[in-house]
Each structure stands twice: as structure tokens, then as C-alpha cells.
Amino acid sequence: MQDTICAISTALGVSAISIVRVSGNDAIKIVNKVFFGKNLENVKSHTIHYGYIVYNNEKIDEVLVSVMKAPRTFTKENIVEINCHGGIATTKKVLEILLCNGCRLAEAGEFTKRAFLNGRIDLTEADAIMDLINSKTEAARKMAMKGLEGNAKKLISSLRKDLINIISNIEVNIDYPEYNDIYEVTVQDLKSKLSIFRNSLVKIISEYENTRIISEGIKTVIVGRPNVGKSSLLNRFLDTDKAIVTDIPGTTRDIVEGSISFNGILLDFIDTAGIRETNDLVEKIGVEKSFEKIDEADLVLVILNNNEELTEVDLDILDKTKDKTSIVVINKDDLNSRIDISKLQNRDVIYANTLLSSGLDDLKNRITKLFNLDQIKKQDYNYITNAREIAKIKECLKILDDIDMSLLNDIPLDMLEIDLRNIWNILGEIIGEKYSDELLDELFSKFCVGK
Ligand code: GDP
């Protein structure tokens, strides 16, 4: 980590300003070589300076340069941020000049990786930074901020503390069996302690499942035969013309996706091709995709045409969605009803007219109720919500299952200790007390360059 890295930290495009970030021992020295203004090597830390980036006697851009000296910086290294004028050519040129003067181009997530390796953040905070960057709704942002404030780290650290108490009790019993005055761990003791520990892990998983939609959104699939009004409904929701509305059945062949922020939660719409029995290959692929999407969906909106009798295909769709969280929308409410309502018993039904946007509020209220959105909004976001962290917790639960089996089979305590230490290590991987290079590479490669 001796080299000095640089990258464009803002999105590349036409904008008022762009920021080129430099981090490393030589950050100030290198920028100073190409900066026309104050001598940056003599300025105080955390100060901003006006000047020009100059290369081969040519003024490249008029800039503001922030100088932050180690260790009170994000990476705990010297950091310089060059605020240049936005625009692809200018920003790239400034980057190029830095590369010619001794910087290396940063890898994806390398600034955050350095922040971790230098002890500025733990891995749950790195996860939270990633979640924060990716959050598309207010609720997701709030949740990521809780992670960044160290909530996940505190929780995992306290679980590790509980576990190390259990392990040390076992160790003392194994190492000093001759002492009478030490607390003797019985199998019963161990079982009850591990059961409390397991409950804490199970609680984390169930809270994650309950609030998964905050971070991941509600995957909503709209299904129905061609021409029932799927695209119109989607358009009413999105309030754009993204999906094509037409009178010719079967034109919405491709799956059009769009998202809205609804009650602070992301509603991801997947408009499927019209479902009907057909020999046309493209249409057929679309139909199959519709059914595939039903399986993956959190919510299915089944659209029926109020003006037509239920067909075999409608009944098939109703059957395929009967066990899913779904709402049946009887569209074209303005036209005469020809639907046999008795066939929709036990289904959540609403009427709509997508031409006039009527029924939309009704639909939104049902979605709010179905997913407890009012409740979720009121809750504290003190959960572990990052998928990587949850996967690790699940790994721990699996090992706990093995331990339970071992206890049933009277396996000696010292054998169990190995499994418990394994759990302790996995929990350590969540916060980064234990990590492998592969884990870091995998984690930080998901970041953008410049973060
Ligand atoms: P899709 O094939 O299911 O996506 O259906 P579209 O959204 O393309 O709509 C098919 C046709 O039905 C279009 O001509 C729409 O204008 C019309 N349509 C959609 N919703 C309504 C409605 O509520 N009432 C009436 N009368 N026509 C509608």
C-alpha cells in the first residue's frame, strides 16, 4: 500500500463539477507538482485552495483543491481531492496528468479497502457504504446509515463476546479438570446457552426477512392476457410512457422494467409479455418468462378484462398465482362486466380503470396493507440487512445444527469447541476481524472506482 492511487470519484458526464481523488503517502507531493497556486506541501490539513492544474505550461483547468493530511482522513492516508469543472475531457485530462506524475489508477473500491485495511472502518461499515451508495429510497438510505453508524458491528461484537464466554468455560473444564472450584460446564448448561445464542441469530435472520423489501424493494410482476391493460397500469404507476400501449394484442413482448418509490419502499415493476397460448416463438418465450417471473415475484398483480368472460388462460394464471402474494385487478371498469366473480372467491380483488387512473389509490392501499408498509416505516432500522452478512449468519446457524446433533450423540466437549471457534471466526469475517484476500477482493470489487 505504498503507492498513491487516484480516480474520478464522481459520475463521468457533463456536470458542474467533478472530483478527482488522490490517496497515499505522495498524494500532496504529486498534486503539488501540477498545481499552480499555493505550495500545497506547506498548507494546513483540511484546507481548500484555489488554483490551476497546469501541464507542460498549459492551464488545463481552474480548480479547488482540498488537502487532508493523514491520519484524520477516510483512508487514514494523505488525501487530496481536486474539484475540477465537470465534463469528460477536463476530468479525464486531470486524471491522466496525475497518472503521468506518479499516481496509479485505483481499483474498484480501493479507497474504501484502504480505509478498512488501515483500521478506519470495519467490514460492516464497508458493506453499509456500499448499501448507502446503492440505496434508491429513503427507507433504504436510513437503514444503510444505521450500518454506517456501527450498529451491525456492535451486535456482532456482542455475539462474539457471548460465544467466547461459552468457549472459555469449555476450555477451562478441558484444561483444568483437576480443579474443583471452577465452574463445571454440563451438557445441559451448554445446550441452554447455545439455545439463547441460536435465538439471537434466528432473530437477525427473521428481522432481515421482514425488512428485506426495504433494501431490495418489492418485486412486482404484472400478468394477464394480451390487451387487458397491463402496460396501461404500469404507465399509470410510472407516470411515463416507458411501456408501449397499443390496441394490437401481444405487442408488449419484452419485459419492461420500471421502479417507483412507494411509501419509501421501492416497487420494482416487471411487465411481462401478454400470456396466451401461442405457437409464435417470440410470444412463447415471453409467456414462459411471465411464468418464471411469477415464481420470483414478491407481489403479483393479475390483470383481468372486466368486459370479457374468464378464459382458460385467465383461469390458468389465477391458478398459478393462488399461493402467491397477489392482487387481482379487474380492469376496464368503465365497460360492461362479463366476468363471473364467483370464480374469484378467496382472492383479493379490486376494480380499476387504467385509462382514468381510477382504482390506483385502492391498489396502493392494498399493497401497503399486504406488506405492512406503515409498520415498517415506523420501526427502527437496527437490523443486519446486508446480504453478505446475512449469508455468514446462516453459515453459523448450520454449524449450530451440527453442534446440536453432536450433543445428542455425546460427542466430547473439546470436539464441539472446534465448531464453536469456527462460528466465532465466521462472525469475525462479518466485521473483518478475520478475512481472506479473496473476501476483500470480492467485497470491494463491487464498489465503483473512486470509492
Ligand atoms: P396489455 O396488452 O395488457 O399491456 O394492454 P394495454 O395496456 O396495451 O391496453 C390494451 C388496450 O386497452 C389499449 O387500447 C388501452 O387503451 C385499453 N385500455 C386499457 N385500460 C383500459 C380501461 O380501463 N378501460 C378501457 N375502456 N380501455 C382500456
Descriptive account of the structure:
The chain is α/β, with parallel strands linked by helices. The protein folds into three domains: 5-117, Gyrase A, domain 2 (2-Layer Sandwich), CATH 3.30.1360.120; 151-213 and 386-431, Four Helix Bundle (Hemerythrin (Met), subunit A), CATH 1.20.120; 217-378, P-loop containing nucleotide triphosphate hydrolases (Rossmann fold). The protein has 15 helices and 13 strands. Strand 4 (47-55) and strand 5 form a beta hairpin. Helix 4 (123-134) runs antiparallel to helix 5, helix 6 (151-175) runs antiparallel to helix 7 (187-216) and helix 13 (387-408) runs antiparallel to helix 14 (413-431). The longest helix is centred in the middle third of the chain and has 30 residues, at 187-216. The two termini are 16 Å apart. The structure holds guanosine-5'-diphosphate. Guanosine-5'-diphosphate (GDP) is lined by residues 224, 226-232, 245-247, 252, 274, 331-332, 334-335, 353-355.
CATH homologous superfamily identity of the largest domain: P-loop containing nucleotide triphosphate hydrolases
> Oligomerization state of this entry?
single chain
Biggest sheet features: 7 strands, mixed
Helix count from the secondary structure assignment: 15
Q: What is the fold-level CATH name, i.e. the topology of the largest domain?
A: Rossmann fold
Q: Flag low-confidence runs.
A: 250-254
Q: Walk across the major sheet and give the strand order.
A: 3-4-5-6-2-1-7
CATH class of the largest domain: Alpha Beta
User: What helical percentage do the residues reach?
Assistant: 40-55%
Q: What's the number of extended β-strand segments?
A: 13
Strand content bin: 15-25%
Mean pLDDT: 86
Small-molecule binders here are: guanosine-5'-diphosphate
Outline type: flat
Note the run of SSEs as H and E.
EEHEEEEHEHHHHHEHEEHEHEEHHHHH
| CATH 2nd-level architecture of the largest domain | 3-Layer(aba) Sandwich
Structural class per helix/strand content?
A: alpha/beta
Distance between the termini: 16 Å
- Structural domain tally: 3
Q: What's the alpha carbon Rg, rounded to whole Å?
A: 29 Å
